[in-house]
Amino acid sequence: MTTAAESAKGALFAQLARIGKALGNGKRLELLDLLAQGPRSVAELAATARLGLTTASAHLQALKRAGLVTATRHGTTIEYALAGEDVAALWLRLREVADARLADVGPATRSYLGPDDTEEITREELLRRVAEGRAVVLDVRPGSEFAAGHIPGAMSIPIDELADRLGEIPADQEIVAYCRGALCVFSHDAVRLLAAHGRRAVRLAEGFLEWRLAGQPVAGEAAR
């Protein structure tokens, strides 16, 4: 016979399971990864994640029902955002646990990011090189993400524009490229492209999400 306490415990764990259910879809995790860079409209999220509008909206509604994202209407446009920094931290921790516990995550990561042919540096090393005036910090995310928040002093050249804008980057300094996070391919591609043009370039081992969650200073809309 089920007691009142057992019934209450079952109801509690069922509520907690709502978060797990909401996260149990690869495309929803991709949407969280994008929203960790800043608020986005449904249309922007759908285009970036290569989803139909209806499908993207359904995934976002599932995340919203679980309290992981918020939705704000601006005229005819609905803009989504993470519900808080705790959600960004949850997404980061999920990635770390998956990488540590699932043998398939490592090979899948390497398959996506490409060969291990680019040099990476830590956050501390980036700060040291910038303080010494030896490096230019290059943000290769889309311009809208840079505007939402970026490493102070970074210059913005989206990865798909980099080949045509190399002349804008000082030629006498090392370049440290960064993008969304540790699972973002843009910085890898940027370093390969820069190296192919004879430029000295490395990448930040992590990205803007990890930078922000570590309590480092942020410029752009996020700073306000």
TrEMBL record:
Q: Which InterPro entries match?
A: ArsR-like_HTH (IPR011991), GlpE_sulfurtransferase (IPR050229), HTH_ArsR_DNA-bd_dom (IPR001845), Rhodanese-like_dom (IPR001763), Rhodanese-like_dom_sf (IPR036873), Thiosulphate_STrfase_CS (IPR001307), WH-like_DNA-bd_sf (IPR036388), WH_DNA-bd_sf (IPR036390)
* Domain HTH arsR-type positions: 8-102
**What PROSITE patterns does this protein map onto?**
HTH_ARSR_2, RHODANESE_1, RHODANESE_3
In terms of Pfam families, this protein maps to: HTH_5 (PF01022), Rhodanese (PF00581)
Membrane-spanning segments: none
Occurrences of domain Rhodanese (ranges): 131-220
Q: Per its UniProt entry, which superkingdom is the organism in? A: Bacteria
Q: What is this protein called?
A: ArsR/SmtB family transcription factor
Q: Which organism was this protein described from? A: Pseudonocardia lutea
What taxonomic lineage is listed for the species of origin? Answer: Bacteria, Bacillati, Actinomycetota, Actinomycetes, Pseudonocardiales
